[in-house]
Amino acid sequence: MVYKSGGQGNAEAQYRLAVMHDKGDGIEQNRSLAKKYYQQACDGDSQEACSKLKQLTE
């Protein structure tokens, strides 16, 4: 369900997907996908996602 919502522009779902990929929580860790989903969530006004994205790109 998270994947479907994330693909539909739901910022909270995109943030959750980013965290899952960032930590490898239940799926294989993939920092590239984590950045992609953090960026999408940040674009959707998720301040948490913007902060995490900044941390990953520093």
By secondary-structure content and strand pairing, the structural class works out as mainly alpha
Low-confidence stretches: none
Q: What portion of residues belong to β-strands?
A: under 5%
Main pleated sheet: none
Instruction: Compute the number of helices.
Output: 4
Q: Which bin fits the share of residues in helices?
A: over 70%
Distance between the termini: 31 Å
**How many whole angstroms does the radius of gyration measure?**
10 Å
| Shape assignment | globular
Helix and strand element order = HHHH
Question: How many strands?
Answer: 0
Please state the average pLDDT score: 88
Looking at this protein, list some descriptive labels.
globular, mainly alpha, 58 residues, 74% helix
Could you walk me through the main structural features you see in this protein, from its secondary elements to its overall organization?
The protein is mainly alpha-helical. The chain is built from 4 helices and no strands. The longest helix is centred in the N-terminal third of the chain and has 13 residues, at 11-23. It is globular. The model has no long low-confidence stretch (mean pLDDT 88).
